[in-house]
């Protein structure tokens, strides 16, 4: 597909990264970060491994191309979700196998394919160093799948960049906006009693059931708001429930986990209010004895103006490589771009693979998309850093 991209380097690197287990939890990116840093150091690219804690690490690889130019960040993540039940896979999930033009395995689409394509673009840029001025930084980070510790550590150490591209499976669409995620824990307290005398207690599970039914009404209300032109409407879902200590005891506690997807402009504090108001209503009605709503995790929703230079460069590169008219796109999932934009760096999300492949059994990505992604990343760098 491209005269610039070393296909053998790209495919072998992507396959090798898939074979390195980086499941999160527990999170063990050190081996993959070290491997990537060594491969790029062999190309003459300044490469370091930034240790976080235990086996957690980022690989930070910097291509210097003259003084005074801007800095372009390529960011993607080394960690993957767990493989899950092996019986659900038709291929070895950590085998890195290539079949019928596709690379298979956990992380192939989300997001080791993006990392390999970014690395291949850096290899091509080494040969084009006289055509650019500035720096290209490839940060392959830890912990995107849980708490974004890797990107937060990167930003703490390096500050802001001039432009950023975050590699995630977008089907090579240029995402200028994506949703955020708010994880809430709702703890409902009742009063225990012998199960033969339920009237003597306050059943926390029944209270939780009422709360869930009210959440269904709340979700329906969210489905009727105007929403965002690219990412759509906010959503909520009850995703976990735990309650009871013994079959013959009226449960005095039940805990719910709620996934609330945010659209650009929503804050976690504002989104939390309706859940607390519903809790107060239940307390006033005597349905429970105690209630708490707490934020467990928060990932930012984000939006970048399509007129930003990084967005224009990305849209132009995709249009030329894929021979289509690329338009701004919205991603329903969250990414580390939220933290990068919050730190002052405009960016887009763009990478090979489809989101439907992420976290799924038999995850895979087309080799042709890896090649196209590498060429697109290469062209973005030439556009923004071209001397």
UniProtKB/TrEMBL annotation:
Q: Which InterPro entries match?
A: ArgE/DapE (IPR010182), ArgE/DapE_CS (IPR001261), Bact_exopeptidase_dim_dom (IPR036264), Peptidase_M20 (IPR002933), Peptidase_M20_dimer (IPR011650), Peptidase_M20A (IPR050072)
Pfam families, alphabetized: M20_dimer, Peptidase_M20
Q: Which GO terms describe its molecular function?
A: metal ion binding; succinyl-diaminopimelate desuccinylase activity
From the UniProt record, give the pathway where this protein acts.
Amino-acid biosynthesis; L-lysine biosynthesis via DAP pathway; LL-2,6-diaminopimelate from (S)-tetrahydrodipicolinate (succinylase route): step 3/3
Enzyme Commission number(s) of this protein:
3.5.1.18
Give the record's keywords alphabetically.
Cobalt, Hydrolase, Metal-binding, Zinc
CDD domains in the record: M20_ArgE_DapE-like
Which reaction equations make up its catalytic activity? Answer: N-succinyl-(2S,6S)-2,6-diaminopimelate + H2O = (2S,6S)-2,6-diaminopimelate + succinate
UniProt cross-references to Gene3D superfamilies, sorted A to Z? 3.30.70.360, Zn peptidases
| EC supergroup of this enzyme | hydrolase
Domain Peptidase M20 dimerisation, first and last residues per copy: 176-284
The protein's name: Probable succinyl-diaminopimelate desuccinylase
Biological source species: Candidatus Terraquivivens tikiterensis
